[in-house]
């Protein structure tokens, strides 16, 4: 899945089994006082940790809240009845059948635990006494009542005598069921659908002996409006009439909303799927159509049998669609389905898909195993795309290209999304994770391979340089928080899964795989991938299975190296010093590693990574002169032939997932190489971002990064400017809490002056793809700064755009819209709404709606927030419109107050999921005071945030980091800007 998308550490050896054992317990005040800590409700995983286990328990995972005194204890055990999960010795206390044991330095050995929620419902995976082998599934959706009828016959194997069959079901009504064996029929004595466990239980009066059976179930359900399960997606047809499509979205655990099934990734089966639908509608599923026939006034489509696969990959779509088709060089039929009348908008994705399939076939040395693949644009879709085997579903904005109205950056995005989902056809679909704990294996890997593929197909994108800014840096920014989580997260209850569709699973996962790819080399990486996919095809795997295959191919200690990156939270900062070698011709580099923390604190535990270290020098900037692995706290290495006056760059190519901290003299020698651009783009980018991270952590002054930024005034590279822009944005948000915001805007404009003059507004003859992207970036930044020349030119061009023409190029519209909205009035706002309502392309609607928050008028910002929740904005887009308001100084508090007022409606609308987590993130993290940290904390203590608990904690942590940053550096920033702007 492509997330348009927090966490916990785990206790070694416990995994998901502790899930839900205790429901929200608190240590009483006397325990906390004896241990010398202030009583405070914090998640257990923040209070208790162990470097040896690399993990702690998350409140959401295990339903525990506990006082911070628990940090004093060195071990924990939890028991349920006779089942004891011991994590260390110590005394224990009983709480209504539970035992919580402590050991360590605390004098508080035994006490009562205050019970907050006494009910105990441990989460359990499905019993293994019954296994599915094959499903025959028939669905009949009703587009008038938005309900559906279903029948499923499941060929099962009972492996152990049982009087009860348990499988998953949610929001379904079971009409009847029976169990057949040859000529014998068993009718359940009781059928129970249990929403709290998301299961259906079929109880029988007599035990059923082992053997092969068929379980037949008739059921009904709702074609819902939640963008999960079998749901409805509204669109306007060519006649201007409202119509609905029926669409499935089953990842991660929503197949159970569509049909009773064993909805766990390891419980694979084959599927015969039939859809009974109104005439003149397209009916699609994973496999090609086998037969078509009439059933009264309806049409029945029977599809070919699928390969053995997981339930979350089953798919069906029913609606009005056109398509374009072609065959890949290796003979696979590829179709791209679009809204009717728009099939030309599918041509770019078709071109990409037909090239991607042969690329992956060659790279993995395994052919795509299905006879066809369909890519279809869905009007209402919560994620970016979903890799259903043979029928990949996409947001319209992630698939459709209108030559006149689609920007270059959007086309690039579509290429990446198509590459991502098609990578899953092998890595995820052919070979599937055993359980959601290994989600990162699916998503991190696909997020890496999509860049390999797009780099091959579109070398002009320079996509690996963009990877660092868009993927690698985002992961570093999140992973230095105390409320981050390891890449590999133990998952218990399905409600926890949405929490890990985040920048750690996707972006950090992709970044460490990129680091591994560089460490072992492309040839061995490909060999290892072939070994892995061949050995485990149509089966399920653990992370260690991948390491084993790559280790066999490369003969390097892949498992040992990678476990330090996937099993423990965070990443290191590598501190380097240099001194001349004894012969005077080289240098001796000393490296030290320690965990990097966003607040600059020293970790209280012992962390250690096996860190691939690469070094380049001014003698040959593009060549690595040293490759080694730092696997101890400290290490010295020698580098030959180093110019005494030249520079030395650590982590060349910005591939290693760590920060580098230089002493002032080493950093000073790198600055001329930024000016003359002899330092390669990835190194110019990485150097700046590392220093900025040190600034945020309080290990360097903000003034130092302001000085370094001036070295980039002649920068020409798009990705380097993207990183500069991100830093300017973060500083701008911070300084919007001060009285020197306008002074900082002057500073920004001076940095952007040369590059904006070079690019102008018009495309230059022979212009490269990246210059097109850079122009949009620079003008967008100047629009946000209310640059007078930019605003005037934007107004002039916008008047022509809405008048007789020419129309604005798609790449400049976002910048132009924001410029005129910031400078405009209610009339401007109303004009933008008219454009929104008349736009036919979803991408254009997105551009306009996400620009509306740029207005400075608080009354208009309030209208934008109301508009976001209106019927005019699809639920999938609402959060992004609210976020556009939250990103501005006048809109911050408005958006936060709005979220509080609308919280219950937002919960009802999204029922958790990563759209909600994203909204929480962007409406909280830009504040910068302890008062706001407390307010956010208190609100979410009193209002449930299902699936977003970790995001709340990250937001609160970020607010406090911002407040500390301001307290530390505000005065020196002000003095520097006053001096600079004289």
From TrEMBL:
Binds 1 zinc ion per subunit. The active site is at residue 421. It holds the Pfam family ERAP1_C. The record marks 506 as: Transition state stabilizer. Keywords: Aminopeptidase, Cytoplasm, Glycoprotein, GPI-anchor, Hydrolase, Lipoprotein, Membrane, Metal-binding, Metalloprotease, Protease, Zinc. The keyword Hydrolase applies. It is an enzyme of class 3 (hydrolase). One of its GO terms (biological process) is proteolysis. Residues 647-960 form the ERAP1-like C-terminal domain. GO terms for cellular component: cytoplasm; extracellular space; plasma membrane; side of membrane. It is a lipid-anchor; GPI-anchor. It catalyses: Release of an N-terminal amino acid, preferentially alanine, from a wide range of peptides, amides and arylamides. Coiled coil: none annotated. Residues 348-565 form the Peptidase M1 membrane alanine aminopeptidase domain. GO terms for molecular function: alanyl aminopeptidase activity; metalloaminopeptidase activity; peptide binding; zinc ion binding. Zn(2+) binds at residues 420, 424, 443. It comes from the Eukaryota. Its EC number is 3.4.11.-. Its cofactor is Zn(2+). InterPro entries: Aminopeptidase_N-like_N (IPR045357), Aminopeptidase_N-like_N_sf (IPR042097), ERAP1-like_C_dom (IPR024571), M1_APN-typ (IPR034016), Peptidase_M1 (IPR001930), Peptidase_M1_aminopeptidases (IPR050344), Peptidase_M1_dom (IPR014782), Peptidase_M4/M1_CTD_sf (IPR027268). It is found in: Cell membrane; Cytoplasm. Residues 132-313 form the Aminopeptidase N-like N-terminal domain. Belongs to the peptidase M1 family. This is Aminopeptidase. It comes from Photinus pyralis. The lineage of its organism: Eukaryota, Metazoa, Ecdysozoa, Arthropoda, Hexapoda.
């Amino acid at each position: 899945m492509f997330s348009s998308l927090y966490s916990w550490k785990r206790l070694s050896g416990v995994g998901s089994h502790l899930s839900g054992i205790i429901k929200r317990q608190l240590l009483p005040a006397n325990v906390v006082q004896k241990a010398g800590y202030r009583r405070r409700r914090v998640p257990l995983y923040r209070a208790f940790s162990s470097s040896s286990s690399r993990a702690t328990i998350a409140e959401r995972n295990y339903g525990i809240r506990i006082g911070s005194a628990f940090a004093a204890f060195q071990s924990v055990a939890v028991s349920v009845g006779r089942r004891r999960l011991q994590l260390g010795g110590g005394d224990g206390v009983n709480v209504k059948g539970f035992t919580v044991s402590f050991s360590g330095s605390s004098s508080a050995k035994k006490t009562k635990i205050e019970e907050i929620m006494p009910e105990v419902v441990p989460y359990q995976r499905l019993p293994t006494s019954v296994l599915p082998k094959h499903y025959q599934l028939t669905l009949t959706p009703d587009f008038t009542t938005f309900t559906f009828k279903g029948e499923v016959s499941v060929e099962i194997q009972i492996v152990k005598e049982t009087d009860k069959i348990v499988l998953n079901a949610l929001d379904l009504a079971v009409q009847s069921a029976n169990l057949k064996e040859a000529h014998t029929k068993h009718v359940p004595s009781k059928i129970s659908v249990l929403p709290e466990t998301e299961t259906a239980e079929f109880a029988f009066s007599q035990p059923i002996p082992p053997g092969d059976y068929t379980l037949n179930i008739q059921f009904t359900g709702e074609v819902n409006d939640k963008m999960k399960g079998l749901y409805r997606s509204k669109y306007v047809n060519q006649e201007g009439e409202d119509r609905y499509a029926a669409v499935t979205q089953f990842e991660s655990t929503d197949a159970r909303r569509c049909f009773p099934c064993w909805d766990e990734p390891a419980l694979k089966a084959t599927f015969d799927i039939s859809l009974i639908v109104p005439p003149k509608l397209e009916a699609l599923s994973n496999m090609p159509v086998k037969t078509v026939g009439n059933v009264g006034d309806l049409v029945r489509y029977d599809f070919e049998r699928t390969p053995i696969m997981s339930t979350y990959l089953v798919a069906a779509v029913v609606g009005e669609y056109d398509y374009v088709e072609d065959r890949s060089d290796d003979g696979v039929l590829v179709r791209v389905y679009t809204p009717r009348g728009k099939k030309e908008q599918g041509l770019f994705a078709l071109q990409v898909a037909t090239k991607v399939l042969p690329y992956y076939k060659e790279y993995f040395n395994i052919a795509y195993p299905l006879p066809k693949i369909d890519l279809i644009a869905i009007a209402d879709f919560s994620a970016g795309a979903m890799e259903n085997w043979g029928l990949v579903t996409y947001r319209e904005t992630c698939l459709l290209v209108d030559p006149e109205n689609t920007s270059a950056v959007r086309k690039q995005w579509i290429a990446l999304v198509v590459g991502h989902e098609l990578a899953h056809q092998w890595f995820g679909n052919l070979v599937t994770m055993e359980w959601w704990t290994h989600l990162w294996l699916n998503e991190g890997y696909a997020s890496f391979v999509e860049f390999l593929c797009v780099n091959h197909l579109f070398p002009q994108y320079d996509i690996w340089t963009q990877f660092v800014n868009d993927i690698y840096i985002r992961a570093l920014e999140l992973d230095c928080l105390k409320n981050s989580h390891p890449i590999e997260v133990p998952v218990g209850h399905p409600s926890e899964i949405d929490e890990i569709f985040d920048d750690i699973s996707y972006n950090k996962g992709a970044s460490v795989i990129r680091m591994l790819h560089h460490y072992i080399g492309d040839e061995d990486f490909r060999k290892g991938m072939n070994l892995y996919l061949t050995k485990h095809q149509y089966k399920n795997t653990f992370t260690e299975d991948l390491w084993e295959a790559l280790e066999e191919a490369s003969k390097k200690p892949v498992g040992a190296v990678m476990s330090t990156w996937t099993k423990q939270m965070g990443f290191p900062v590598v501190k380097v010093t240099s001194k001349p070698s004894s012969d005077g011709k080289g240098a001796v580099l000393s490296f030290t590693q320690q965990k990097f923390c966003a607040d600059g604190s020293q970790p209280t535990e012992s962390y250690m990574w096996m860190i691939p270290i690469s070094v380049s020098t001014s003698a040959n900037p593009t060549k690595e002169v040293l490759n080694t692995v730092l696997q101890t706290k400290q290490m010295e290495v020698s580098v030959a032939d180093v110019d005494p006056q030249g520079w030395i760059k650590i982590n060349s190519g910005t591939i290693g997932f760590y920060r580098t901290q230089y002493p002032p003299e080493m950093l000073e020698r790198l600055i001329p190489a930024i000016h003359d651009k002899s330092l390669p783009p990835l190194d110019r980018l990485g150097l700046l971002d590392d220093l900025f991270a040190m600034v945020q952590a309080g290990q360097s002054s903000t003034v130092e990064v302001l000085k370094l930024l001036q070295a980039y005034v002649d920068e020409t590279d798009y990705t380097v400017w993207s990183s500069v822009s991100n830093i300017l944005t973060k500083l701008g948000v911070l300084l919007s809490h001060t009285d020197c915001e306008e002074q900082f805007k002057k500073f920004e404009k001076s940095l952007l002056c040369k590059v904006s003059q070079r690019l102008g507004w018009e495309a230059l003859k022979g212009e490269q793809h990246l210059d097109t992207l850079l122009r949009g970036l620079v003008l967008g930044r100047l629009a946000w700064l209310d640059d007078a020349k930019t605003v005037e030119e934007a107004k002039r061009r916008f008047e022509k755009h809405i008048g007789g023409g020419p129309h604005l190029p798609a790449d400049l519209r976002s910048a132009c819209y924001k410029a005129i909205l910031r400078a405009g009035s209610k009339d401007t706002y109303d004009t933008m709404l008219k454009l929104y309502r008349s736009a036919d392309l979803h991408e254009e609607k997105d551009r306009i709606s996400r620009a509306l928050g740029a207005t400075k008028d608080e009354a208009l910002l309030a209208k934008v927030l109301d508009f976001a929740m209106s019927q005019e904005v699809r639920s999938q887009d609402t959060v992004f419109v609210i976020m556009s308001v939250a990103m501005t100084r006048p809109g911050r508090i408005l958006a936060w107050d709005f979220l509080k007022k609308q919280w219950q409606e937002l919960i009802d609308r999204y029922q958790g999921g990563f759209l909600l987590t994203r909204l929480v993130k962007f409406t909280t993290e830009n504040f910068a005071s302890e008062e706001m940290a407390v307010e956010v904390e208190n609100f979410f203590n009193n209002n449930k945030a299902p699936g977003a608990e970790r995001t709340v904690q990250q937001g609160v942590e970020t607010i406090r980091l911002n407040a500390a940053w301001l307290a530390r550096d505000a005065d020196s920033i002000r003095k520097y800007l006053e001096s600079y702007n004289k």
